[in-house]
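Hi, here's the filled form for the chain we discussed.

Project: internal
Contact: R.S.
Residues: 300
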Amino acid sequence: MHDQNFKNLILDYPVQALQFFAAEEAHDDLQQARIIPFRQEQLKERLGDRFHELDTPLLVEWPDGRREVILFLLEEETEARRFSIHRLAHYCLDLSELAKTERVVPVVIFLDQGRHPYELHLGGERHTYLSFQYISCELKKRSADDYRNSDNIVARLNLPNMRYAEEQKLDIYHDAQLGLVQLEPDPKKQLKYIDFVDYYTDLTEDEIETYRKDYLSEAEARMGLAQILREEGRQEGRQEGRQEGEMQGEAQMLLKQIQLKFGGCPDWVEEKINQADKAQLDQWVERILFVDTLEKLFKA
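And the returned structure, exactly as it came back:
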C-alpha cells in the first residue's frame, strides 16, 4: 500500500517530490524541465525470468539542452530492515543499461528508523571495483518543525511522517491539511490527498473529536474537513455545468489515474466506468489511492 501511495504522490507532483526527497541533486531549474515516468518493467534476460519493477523512475530532460538528461530512481521502503542495497544497485545498473546513460540518481524514502546500509563496496585486497551510494531520505529523522510552513506540497503532506513531539500531533495534522488546501487548488486532488494525510497521521476517535472542536470552525465541525472538500468539489462541478458534465470529468480523471498507476486501462474497465453512476465514481476515486490491483479497485 505505501509504495502505491508514494507513487501517486510522486507522479502527481514530480518537481516538488524531487526537490524534497532528492534536494542535493534537484536543480533550481526543474520547473523548466520535462519530467516523465520511465518504463517500470525492466528487460528480461530470459522470457521466463521475473522482471524488476522499480517504484518510480523519472526521466528529467531540459528541452533547451542546458543540462544532460538525468534519471531519478525513487524507491519507497516501509521497513528499513527489508531494504537490500544489492537489489537497488542491480536495479540502477539495469536502468543505466536500458536507458543508455550513466546519469542515474537512486533515492530511497524510508518511513521508519530501522538500520540499513548506506554504501556498497565490492573489491579485493588492493582495489575497490564497484562503489555504490544512494540518497537516503529518512523521513523520521527530519524535523516536522522545519517544514510546517513550507510551500512544497510534498513536504507538507509528509509532515505526519516526520519527527515531532507527541503533543504536536494535532498541530502537525492541521498544518498538513492547511498546506493541502493552500497549495493545491484542484478540489479533486485535495480530496485525494486528504486521505493520504489522514492515513499517515492515524488519529484516534478522541483526537478527531478534539481536532474538530479546537481547530475547525463551526461549519467545518459540523461536517468535517473531508466533507467540506467534497462539497466544494461538487459546487465547482455545478458551476461548470450540469451533473452529467461533472460525472464525465470525474470519469476522465479516474481513467487517467488508472493509466498512471497500472500502466494501462483494459476495455472492461472503461466500460465499467462509463456505465457507473456518481456514487460509484466517487467511491472509486477515493479507493484508488489504497489498492494495488484493478480487481480490488472495482470490488463490490
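Let me know if anything looks off before we file it.
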